[in-house]
C-alpha cells in the first residue's frame, strides 16, 4: 500500500507540474502582442523625445553599438567604396543635415546607412558612394547626446575626438582623413554643409574625363594671401608658414582627391607643422608631394553670394556644373534639388 501511495503521489505531482507549465506558456498571439508593444515603445522612445532625456542606462544601451570608448562615433562601412564624401558639419546643425539627407546626400530612405541614393550614372550603377557627416565634440552635453541619437538612427555620422571650433577644424578634418584611410575609397571628396553636390554628374565626369592618376581637383585659388594679424580668423604665424603667399590650392568648401593620396598626405603631414587654414595647409602638403591642383572652376562653382543668383539660373547653367556653393541656405538647396529632379541630374 505504501508503494502504491508513493506511485500515485508521484503521478499526481507530475500531472500538476504539466498543468502549471501549460498555464505559464505564452501562446503565439500573446508573443506577437508583446513584440508589437515593445516595438511601439521603442519607436516612441526614439522619435518623440530628445535622446538626452532618456534614462542613462537606456542611452548606454542605444549608443553601445556606435559610440566608442573615447567618445568617437564612426559609421559601419564595408566593401569596396568608389566615392567617400566627407561633409564638414557641427553638432548643433541637425536640421541642416536632415535637409542634405533629403536632397543631394540622399541617405534618408536607403537600406544602407550613409549610402547615397542618387548614384545613377552612365557607367556603373553598382558603385558604392557614401556620404558621411564629420563633426567634433560639442561643449554642450545635450547636443552630444542628441547627436548620438541622430547617429544611431541614420548611421552616417563620424565624430572625431576633438572639441568643435574653427581653430580645431583642421584637427577634425585630419581625423576624418585618418578614418578614411581605413575605408580606402577610390576617391575622397571633402565638402562643407552649405553647398550642393550633383553626385551622378560627378561620377559620370570622373569616368569620362582623362584625370591625373594622383588627383587633387577643385576651385583653385592662385596666390592666396596669408593673414598675419593674430586676431584674424585665418591667422598663420611665420613660424607655422614663412612664405609670402600660399601655393595654389583647392578652396575648402569642396575638393576631390584620389583615395591613394590619403595615406601619403598623412605621412607627409608628420614632417610639416600644422596651421589652422585647412584648405591652404592641404595645398602645401600637395606641393610637398609634387602634386599640382587641377583647376575645374567652371564645374565646381564657388561664390559666397551664389544663393542670390541661383533662382534665375537657366537649365543649361545647372547642367554644366557639378558643385555649387558656398553659404547656400536650406531653401536654396531644396530649390536646386527640385530643379535637378525636373531636368535630370545628368
Written account of the structure:
By secondary structure, the chain is an alpha/beta fold. The chain has one domain (83-343): Alpha-Beta Complex (Spore Coat Polysaccharide Biosynthesis Protein SpsA, Chain A), CATH 3.90.550.50. Helices cover 41% and strands 16% of the residues. The protein contains twelve helices and ten strands. It has helices at 2-24, 28-47, 56-63, 94-102, 141-154, 169-183, 199-208, 261-269, 278-288, 306-309, 315-320, 330-343; strands at residues 83-88, 129-137, 157-163, 187-192, 196-197, 216-221, 249-258, 294-295, 300-302, 323-325. The strands form two sheets. A seven-stranded mixed β-sheet has the order 3-2-1-4-7-6-8. Helix 5 (141-154) links the parallel strand 2 (129-137) and strand 3. The longest helix has 23 residues, at 2-24. The chain is globular. GO terms for molecular function: hexosyltransferase activity. The chain crosses the membrane at residues 32-52. Its EC number is 2.4.1.-. Its main location: Golgi. It is an enzyme of class 2 (transferase).
Amino acid at each position: 500500500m505504501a508503494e502504491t501511495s508513493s506511485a500515485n503521489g508521484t503521478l499526481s505531482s507530475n500531472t500538476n507540474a504539466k498543468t502549471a507549465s501549460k498555464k505559464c506558456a505564452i501562446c503565439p498571439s500573446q508573443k506577437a502582442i508583446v513584440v508589437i508593444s515593445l516595438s511601439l515603445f521603442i519607436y516612441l522612445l526614439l522619435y518623440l523625445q530628445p535622446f538626452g532625456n532618456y534614462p542613462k542606462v537606456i542611452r548606454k544601451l542605444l549608443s553601445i553599438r556606435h559610440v566608442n570608448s573615447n567618445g568617437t562615433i564612426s559609421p559601419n562601412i564595408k566593401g569596396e567604396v568608389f566615392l567617400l564624401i566627407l561633409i564638414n558639419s557641427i553638432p548643433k546643425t541637425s536640421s541642416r543635415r536632415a535637409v542634405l539627407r533629403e536632397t543631394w546626400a540622399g541617405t534618408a530612405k536607403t537600406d544602407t546607412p550613409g549610402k547615397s541614393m542618387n548614384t545613377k550614372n552612365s557607367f556603373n550603377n553598382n558603385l558604392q558612394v557614401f556620404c558621411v557627416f564629420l563633426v567634433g565634440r560639442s561643449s554642450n552635453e545635450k547636443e552630444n547626446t542628441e547627436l548620438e541619437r541622430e547617429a544611431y538612427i541614420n548611421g552616417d555620422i563620424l565624430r572625431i575626438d576633438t572639441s568643435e571650433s574653427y581653430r580645431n577644424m583642421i584637427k577634425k578634418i585630419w581625423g576624418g582623413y585618418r578614418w578614411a584611410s581605413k575605408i580606402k575609397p577610390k576617391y575622397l571628396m571633402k565638402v562643407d554643409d552649405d553647398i550642393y553636390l550633383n553626385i551622378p554628374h560627378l561620377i559620370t565626369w570622373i569616368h569620362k574625363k582623362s584625370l591625373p592618376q594622383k588627383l587633387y581637383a577643385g576651385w583653385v585659388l592662385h596666390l592666396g594671401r596669408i593673414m598675419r594679424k593674430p586676431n584674424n580668423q585665418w591667422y598663420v604665424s611665420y613660424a607655422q608658414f614663412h612664405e609670402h603667399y600660399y601655393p595654389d590650392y583647392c578652396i575648402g568648401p569642396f575638393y576631390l582627391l584620389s583615395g591613394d593620396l590619403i595615406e601619403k598626405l598623412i605621412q607627409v603631414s608628420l614632417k610639416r607643422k600644422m596651421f589652422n587654414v585647412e584648405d591652404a595647409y592641404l595645398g602645401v602638403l600637395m606641393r610637398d608631394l609634387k602634386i599640382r591642383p587641377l583647376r575645374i572652376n567652371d564645374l565646381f562653382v564657388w561664390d559666397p553670394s551664389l544663393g542670390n543668383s541661383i533662382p534665375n539660373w537657366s537649365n543649361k547653367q545647372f547642367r554644366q556644373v557639378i558643385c555649387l556653393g558656398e553659404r547656400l541656405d536650406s531653401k536654396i538647396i531644396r530649390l536646386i534639388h527640385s530643379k535637378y529632379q525636373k531636368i535630370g541630374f545628368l
